[in-house]
Amino acid sequence: CVLCGRTDDCPEKYGEKRTYVEYNLTVHYYCLLMSSGIWQRGEEGEGVDGFLITDIRKEVNRAAKLKCNICKKKGASIGCVAPKCKRSYHFPCGVQKECIFQFMEDFRSYCWEHKPVQKFPDKESRGTSQCTICLDLVEQLPIYTVLKSPCCKNAWFHRECLQYQALSAGIFFFRCTVCNNKDKFQKEMLRMGIHIPEKDASWELEENAYQELLQCYQHCDVKRCLCKKGRDYNEPDSKWEIKRCQCCGSRGTHLACSSMKSWEQNWECMECRSIFAKSGNYSKQKKRSLATSEKTDGTTCWLEEPSPKCPRQSRESQRNFLLQSPKIMCQNNLSPCSNLELPASNRVTMSLSPLMSNGNWSLRKKHLRKQRREVSNILKELKLQVNTKTTRLNINAENIWNSALKGFRQRNFSATNTIEIKFTNCKNRSKADTSPASKHCFFQLLMLHLQNSSLFEGSSSKNLSLDFQAVKENLYFEAGKMIAVSLVHGGPSPGFFSKTLFNCLVYGPENVKPALEDVADVDVAQTIKMIKYADSLSSLQSTIHDCYEFLAAAGCLRPITALCDKNMLVNDILIHHVIKRITSPLESFRQGLKTLGVLEKMQMHPDAFSSILCHKPERLSAETICDLFAIHSSSDVNKVEGADFWMSYLQDVESGESVVTLEDILFFVTGSFSIPPVGFDPEPTIKFLHIMYPVRNRLLHCLELPITKTYEQFKNKMEFTIGNTLRVERE
Fold it and tell me: GO CC annotations (predicted)?
C-alpha cells in the first residue's frame, strides 16, 4: 500500500486492497478514506471511488514527510483531530494502538489519548456477560475491544464481532441484535469506530439465495380430481387453476374440483379443517357478503350505516353483516370525488380544552408539526421501495371496500408497484385516471370506510372490534395492509387510532393498560362502572352476583373479601375486553401493517407516528399552504409582486373573506383535501405567467397564476376560476 507500506490483505481490518496496474498503484481502502489531506473531488467512477489519482500521489508525497508516532517510520498520512494534538500515524499502526477512526461525516481520527469512550453509570455492576453475536463471554469493562449497546442495558459485544456483523449486514440491516434498534445503535457504533458500509446485506446479494421459497405447491389433492389432464395440470384464470390451502399452503385443489366459482374464495384442506373442528373454530355456515344483501328481486340493498358516535351494541344484538359501505354514493354521471366532503373531524384538529392555555396549545401544535415532519421523512425513505411497474385497480366508488379488497388480493398486486386507479362506475371516467388526484380520492374514501366499518369500535378514538367472520376471512390483515400502503403511496393517514390501540401495536399488548374509555360496548361499560363505583362490600357482591355469567365467560371471577378488591377486578375486565378478547384480530392487523416496513418504523419512532395515526390532520393555514408551494417565475420582479398577491389572498381566505376555503385551493391543485403524511410527489409549485386565468396541472401539482396589476384583479380571477371549477365538479 502506497500509504501505509504494508502488504497485508485483510479487508475486515484495513479495507479492500486494490491494485491499479495502469497507475502502478496499490492502496488499502481504509488508508485512503482516513488520510487527512485528501478529499473525493471526482465522480464516483473516477480514480479510486472518487479519489483522483493526482490527489492520491500528492497525499503520498505529503505523508512522506511525516513520521509515525507509533512505528517511527515515514508515511504517516493520518493525524489526530483533537486540538493541539500533533500525533500522526499509519492506519494499521493506529488500529494496533487502539485509535478510533470514525467512518462518517469528515472521517475524523482520534489517537489513543483523545479517543471517545463509552460512559457507564458508577452503580452498574461489573462482571461478564455473553456477546450476543459470537455467544462467547465478554468482560463488562470500558475497554477498546468491548462495546456496549446504547439501547439495551445488558447487551455487550466484542468490537471484532460487531465489525464483522456490520460488514455483512450493511447500513440497511445493521442493528442491535437484542432489540432491533437501528438509528440509535448505528449512531453510537459509528462514533466508536465501527465501519458500516453503504451496501445491501451480503445475504441479499447472493444469487438465488431464496430460490426454494419461490416454489409454489401445484397439485390437486382432493379425493376425486375431475381434470382430464392430471392432478398437476394448472391453467391460470380458468376452472383448472390450482388453489392452495389458505392455512397451510401445502395442499391444493383445482377450482372445479372443489366447486369454487372464483379464485378469491377461501379453501381449507381436510387436515386443516379437522384441526379447526377440534378447536371449535370451524363453521360450515355459508359465508355472507360484506356490504350487501340480495333482495328477492335481484336488486342490491344498501345497509344502513350507524353513526360513528353511537356506542357499540351488545353481543346479543350485533348485526349479521361484517362491513358497511359508507354513504358516499356516486351517481352515474359524477366523479367519485365530486361529492366527497371532509367530515368535521378532518377539518378541525381537536377542540381546545378550557383548562389548556393558548400558550400550551401553541407548543402542542408546534410539537405535532415537528413530529409530522419527521414522519414525512421516514415515509419518503420507505417510498424508495416503490418501483415504476404499475398495478391498476378497478374501483367502484359505490362499493369501495369490496372493489379495494378484490384489487389488493389479486395475484399481480404488489405493494412495491406504482398504483393506478380506474373508477369503473362513472361515465366521465372512461379511461384509467393515472393522476395523483384519483389515487388521493381512492385512499381518502378507503380510510373513511375503514373508520366507519365494524372492524373498529368506539366513537372518535377507535380500537379493534372482535368479529369472527372478519378473522376467518383475514380482513384485519387486509385493513392493516391497506393503511400501510396508503401511508407510503401518498394517501391520508387513518387518524382515528386510540392511544391504547397504538400502544398495543408498538409496545405489545402485554405492556398496555386500557382505560374505561376504551370500552365501546354500553352493556360492558355499565357493568364496569357499577363495579368501579360500588360504595360498599355488599353492593359490590350484589353487582358481581348479577353479572356472574359475564364474569365467568371472561375468566375474571376472583374472590372478593374487601371493597378494595374491586380495583383488581375492574382491571381484569378491562384487560380481557379491550386486549385479550381481540388477540387474534390484533395479530392479523399487526402483520398487515408490516407491509413495506411500516410497523417496524412505528416501533422505532412511536411519538412521530402517533401524531398521524392518533390525530386528524391539523386545519390548513395560510402559512402552511404558502410553505407547501415552491414559487417559480420568469423574472424576479414578477415573482416578488406575484408572491405578495398570493400571500395576501391566502390570508383573506383564512380569515373568511373569500367564497373558497384553503381546502378548496389544495383540492383544486392536488385533488386532496389535506396534506398526506408522506407529502406530495412531485412537490407543488406555482408559476406566475402572463395568462388570463389560473391554470392547474394535477399530474405535476403545478398552479399557474396570472400576473395582474392590482390585487383586486388577482383575487377576482382566483375566486372565479376555483369556485366555478369546483362547482362544476360537484354538479
Answer: nucleus
The mean pLDDT of 264-284, rounded to a whole number, is 70
CA–CA dist 528, 569 (Å, integer): 9
Residue 715: Cβ within 10 Å count = 18
Distance, CA of 360 to chain centre: 29
Share the mean pLDDT of the chain: 82
What average pLDDT does the segment 302-307 reach?
Answer: 35
Domain extent listing, the chain = 17-110, 128-204, 379-492+585-608, 622-730
Q: In the prediction, which pLDDT does 363 show?
A: 66
Degrees to nearest 5, angle at CA 358 with 354 and 362? 125
Mean pLDDT across the stretch 479-497? 94
Helix (H) or strand (E) holding 421: strand 418-423
Cis peptide before 514 (omega within 30 of 0): no
For helices 565-574 and 537-546, the axis angle rounded to 10 degrees is 30
CATH of 379-492+585-608, one of 3.90.1750.10, 3.30.200.20, 3.40.50.2300, 3.40.50.300: 3.90.1750.10
User: Nearest 5 degrees, angle CA 255-CA 259-CA 263?
Assistant: 35
Task: Measure the CA angle with vertex 425, ends 424 and 429; round to 5°.
Answer: 65
Residue burial 240-266, b: 16+ Cβ < 10 Å; e: rest: bbbbbbebeeebbbbbbbeebeebeee
Q: Which CATH class is domain 622-730?
A: alpha beta
According to DSSP, the β-strands at 685-689 and 702-706 are parallel
At residue 695, what are phi and psi to the nearest 5 degrees?
-130, 135
Q: Model confidence over 105-114: pLDDT tens digits?
A: 889 999 999 9
- 496 DSSP β-pair partners: none
Spell out the residues 6+ positions from residue 392 whose beta carbon is closer than 8 angstroms to its own. 420, 421, 422, 432
CA distances 570 to 328, 377, 554, 556, 560, Å, are 40, 42, 12, 9, 12
Assess whether pLDDT exceeds 60 at residue 382. Answer: yes
Cα(600)–Cα(182) distance, integer angstroms: 10
Residue with cell 392455512: 247
Give the Cα separation of 153 and 593 in Å (integer): 29
Q: Where does residue 603 rank: exposed (0-12), middle (13-18), buried (19+ CB within 10 A)?
A: middle
CA 356 centroid distance within chain? 31
Among the CATH numbers 3.30.70.560, 3.40.50.150, 3.30.40.10, 3.60.15.10, which is that of 17-110? 3.30.40.10
Mean pLDDT throughout 550-555? 86
Q: Cell numbers of 414, please?
A: 404488489
Which residues, in sequence order, are CB contacts of 657 under 8 Å at separation 6+?
none
C-alpha dist (Å) from residue 448 to 444, 460, 494, 594, 599: 6, 12, 8, 21, 21
**DSSP sequence for 164-231:** HHHHHHHHHH---TTT---HHHHHHHHHTT----SS--HHHHSTTTTGGGGPPP----SSS---TT-T
